[in-house]
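Quick question, first post here. What does this chain look like in 3D?
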Amino acid sequence: MSLVKAGKTDPLQEFEAMVNVQHLLDDGGKHWFEHINRLAASTVLSATFGLHCPTGHESELTNIIDVSLGSRITLALPAADYDIQLLSKLVHLGAPTSSIINVFPFLDWIPGPMPWRSHAQSFRKRHDEFFESIVDEALTGKASGMNTYVITLTTAVSLHTFVLACIRYPHWVIAAQKEIDDIVGLDRLPTFKDRPYLPFIEAVVRETLRWRPAGRAIEHDKSRYSDDHDKFKPERFLDTEGKLKENYETSAFGFGRRICPGAPFAERSLWIDIATMLWMFNILPSKEIDPKTGVRFEYDDGDAAFKGDLTSAPYEFPAVFEPRSPEREEVARREWAECEKDLNVLLPMPK
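> Answer (accepted):
Ran it through. Tokens below.
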């Protein structure tokens, strides 16, 4: 879609951030992990195919989450069961230890339905079926050049990681919220017009992308980030005057000609989603009991807390999204009631 490439999707992304706030207010973050998945996938589907998914129950949304994130998405859906997890299957198929033919390639000469061949064919079938169905239902009938998988995956995983950083390293949250309050105030939600005046929030986005990427060796180079490279520290992207340092780059979207063309779209999504959540909520650890241990859930940001050869995604964990004040909740509810909800207005289709 040309609007995606032209960077004219800001109204849509602000709208999706507002939808996310409504879901989090409704349940206090009980299903926050699924809400974030909905947010990431719906934003991409809306911008790319004109398919908005506000509830999380839409088949297009659950399919793309299944494809991109390789996770079971229930979101209060009784008997919902998405057993084939395409991205995790892709990672498994691509791993050196995934199949004996990676060690003995000549075995692939054996005819017939060998296990490794069946697994690959199953993945390809699901992949093709998904895109055939979604393109058929798209409003434009054509996809943009944006890599739907990568954008959904990067946005969702980055926001999950951001929430973990709020809980594990809360020292920076106070500074971030103060900056937002000073610029945005208390009577409206953040918008992209505020972005040039919020360098600390920009630093939070950069640190979110740096902290736990798939290419971790690059982003945790001690020569670039010193001995505290494993800590979440947005200040590393600011100079002594609190301004953003120059010559920023990230490996989160690839390099050179292999860089994802949707990277600017994903970064804008991350910015507005993070700014809106920090304006609205205190993101706190949950006091609920971990069913695996029988004691209160213990938060960890070490390697054991993350999964995936490709995604470096955190395992699901509980979190509390506490409104910072009743007045802020009232503002968020009012803006939602009064906002434009017609996708054709938020993101006009090129004629």
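The two ends are 11 Å apart (CA to CA).
The longest helix spans residues 115-137.
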